[in-house]
What does this fold into?
Amino acid sequence: MFAGGIGMFLYGMNIMADGMQKSAGSKMKQLIGYLTRNRLLAVLVGAFITAIIQSSGATTVMVVGFVNAGLMTLVQAVGVIMGANIGTTITAWIVSLGQLGDAVKVLKPEFYAPLLVGIGAILVLFSKKPKKKMLGEIIVGIGLLFLGLSFMSQSISPYTDAPIFSKAFEVVGSNPLLGILIGIIVTALLQSSSASVGILQTLAINGVVTTNAAVFITLGQNIGSCVTAIISSAGTTRNAKRAACMHLLFNIAGAVIFGTAAFILFILRPSLAVHNITSVEISLFHTFFNIICTTIMMPFGGLLVKLSGMIIREKSQDEENATLEASDSYAAELSRHFDNRILEQPSVAVNRALSEVVIMGNLALDNIKYSAKAVINNDQDMIDKVIETEHKVDLYEKYLTEYLIKVNNLSITEEQHLMINNLFHAIIDIERVSDHAENMSDLAKYKIENGITFSQHAMEELKALYEKVVVSFSEAVKAREKLSRIAAENVCRIEDEVDAMEEELRNKHIERLSSGLCKPSNGVIFLDTLSNFERMSDHANNLADCVLEELEHAKARGAKIYAELAGTGASADAYHITASHPEGLGAKLVMMNALEDAGMQPEDIDYINVHGTSTPVGDISEVKAIQALFGEHAYKLNISSTKSMTGHLLGAAGAVEAIASVLSVKNDIVPPTINHEEGDNDENIDYTLNFTFNKAQHRTVRAALSNTFGFGGHNACVIVKKYTE
It folds into this structure.
């Protein structure tokens, strides 16, 4: 019965954690992105993530994976690792509900656990919405966890008076090292400190665990939780190994500090040592220990980074050179991009796959350019570049295919499955484009070896076709990256133009051959080049079709489309470490880039949600940028700062302002700039512009532009427009 209870407890915990991870979704990556260099924030993020996914081991494994993939620094990682230990205490409090509910029977978990399983099962089996299914998984997991605890408790209760229990915990409690060792072994075997703490609490519920034994075992459980991360760091970069090492050092330091303090306390207070501890008291100690340990160790995070560097040393230069000589350095780099630890968070893994496909697409785009220059100009250097880039594309195809297979087997949504399937097709099309580039490099090589040159007229024809193919494929990659319907439709339009141009150029060339104006050997090379360009455009069209398919799928399931992302822009003027350029040069450039990306003119914009920090430097420079870029149209715009209502939300500011812009486009309402009073005017700002002061305004908003600027001249801009069929 006890074994069955453990099984049910562990299975319930696993289902609950899995459901929580899926419901957390892509927010994991976003949370990691907020870390910056603020260690306190990193600790809070680590605690929050672990509280969601119910596993400090899983969080640390994820951190190791992020460090290995270059998504996180060791300085960021140390804070998350510290916070993970705090977050894992949530499970202990869930288990403690058994004793907290003793006063009222209806609050006891075994009373409502069957009901939770039933409700959760109904949601899983009959709900059509993914979010409700995930909620059902969480509820079923909690119910099974409580039932498992009840089974374990019932199986132990008849034997609580047996001497073996009291003797065992007496021995363990009197020997701190033995208690810590037991905690390490049990946790290492279960691969979960939450599970091992839960089992200890079950024994405590039955009154057989002494305080000293519980304290030392709990300290050992914290150290044992490091085993998962240590195992996962095998075969990773040195920094990833250091992240796992920091986790171990942190938990050992905590065990030493608290273990020593507890040992002294129990010598001074022997009655406290042999006191039978409760489940709630274990939760209290577990929480207190982890919070205090994190508070003590937080200022020494930098020291942990240094110590991990001393333990996990860099390779010597000779070793590094030997490794590079013995293997493909680019393959080694790619292997870090597809770190299996990222698979711990399915939505993060999906986003990572998409990012890497885009990188692969841009490599193929480069190869189109190299191959065209090689053929048209008989350029040997470009031929060499094609061969080098083709090797990289082939490696990407290999690694991405393996990675996508793993991602497709994860617990992801139906739409994510569709995207992954389309990414499979995407990497095939991208690789084929690079193959065609390689074919063209062979043609270029043949031209060079045989002294073949094209006429000026023929080269101009090829350049014209090449330019259309480059635009087509770059738009296809953009469509894939941003799920842009506009870009995808552009590709379909250009594909028709490429087909028509290829046929026209082929007919013209055949006429030249027939009239003797062109040598047959030259003609074969020319026609093969046309064919390769046309096939490149076909593959670009395939990429675009997949994006449109995903849109149609979303519409078919009844997804509500609020607006369409038309374009994005970025700039970095680096004028000053904190201040923007006084003339708004960076702000003007970022808006220009967004308009260019969207294929729109300034006159197409109806509303601008400004960065609007209400500072003399920032507001004046942004207004100048708007006037310089939009000209007379600036006076027909609505301009407002929703930051006047929300305040500065740090990393979330741009996102919230973009949401406000989307709703403005959807509802044709411009939100106001509040708190502007008479006498607030600045002589350097033109108030004939419509700043939408204090009251929202109704108007047709065809497209809205949202600005957000950061320290050091880092500027970002997004344009959203009305979605039309």
About this structure: Residues 2-311 form one domain. The two ends are 61 Å apart (CA to CA). Confidence is low (pLDDT under 50) at residues 101-107, 317-327.
